[in-house]
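Table S2 (text version). Query chain:
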Amino acid sequence: MKKFSESCWLRSLALVIAVLVACGLATAGTQYVVTNDDSVFPFHTGVSFYTIGTHGLVFQQQVQTGNFGIGGGYFGMNRLAVLDSAEQQCVYASEAANDDVVGIIISTLTVGGSATGSSTDGGTTNGIGLAMNSNYLYASFSDSNTIGTFQVEPGCGLTFLNDTSVVGLQSGVINGMAVHGSMLIASYTDGSIESFNISGGSPVSNGDKQYSTATVKSQDATYANSIDITSDGHFAIFGDTSTQVSIEVSDISSGKLTKTKTFQSVASISSSNLILSPDETMLYVVNTQGDTVGALFFDKATGQVLPGCRSGRLRGISQNWSYLAGAALISQSGNGGGLYVAEFGSTSGIATVTLTTSGQTCSLQEASGSPVTDANSPGLLSIGTFPPRSF
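Corresponding structure-token output:
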């Protein structure tokens, strides 16, 4: 029998690895920017995956999910949730036209499973927002004003458990959500905010529903939208829809929301989407109804927000896109290095805005080659990264 040489074995191994990479099965260590394309009938929606190249984002493929989106909705609703646990790595996306949530397996870039809520759950008007931990995924259905609780299953599957009915103080619709530890925080379109205990899985109100301070002071001209929570669970941060930049911070160390403190600036219009940097020194703010991105200095010990910097006008306003929307961090360490920003419009895209800092000064600038078009989306609102930020 002819002996199988070591060199032949190595050539065979290299061939196997090449095939796996070509088939999308060898993605360990790959970094992605992902989009919920939210495509409307008759075009199937899906999730697009981009890698980070030398000169910017590079489209890899769209994982079609077989259903449909609505091409719009509330800014504060994050239509993506990314899971990076020891057991599995998944991207979950809501499909509002079909009232379901689909899970995609990162290692193969294939659909792992999907689930709908109850027969009365719906989000076809303004979308379905997502937030999650390693055990449960929470879906905010905007039509039915419910939070659906789903059990996370192996293979990026989901099992629907139950609904929690919610409503703002003036019948507001559920909008943004964020999860940290045993707490889920929600915002409503009437300017009210509320927290829930999720230690048992399903949300149970903490009895702290209240109007945000900015809503009261502006006589309903400002309302809390997107939400982020510090890594230690001390502060909840709200990005407001407003005629100016309006950020609100609530001390939640007691396990409940407290009256929000506000930071406001007339430097730009609206601040419906925000995200903290990994080291929590910077708070990135997307001027959703303007044309810029801001970075504010943040003190994670006190919750204080201080002035920072603002980018110039992002390319393509009016010609290609109408609104800026969701954001994702360029880096999952340090100050984040800047943002990827969703551009909502007839030609949806992803802008890249980089950050430089020196002491208590900073600068934001759109990168050359930005934006990258998302040809699969008629109205891009939600983007994310894999791996995600650690908290």
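Notes on Table S2: The radius of gyration is 21 Å. Confidence is low (pLDDT under 50) at residues 1-27.
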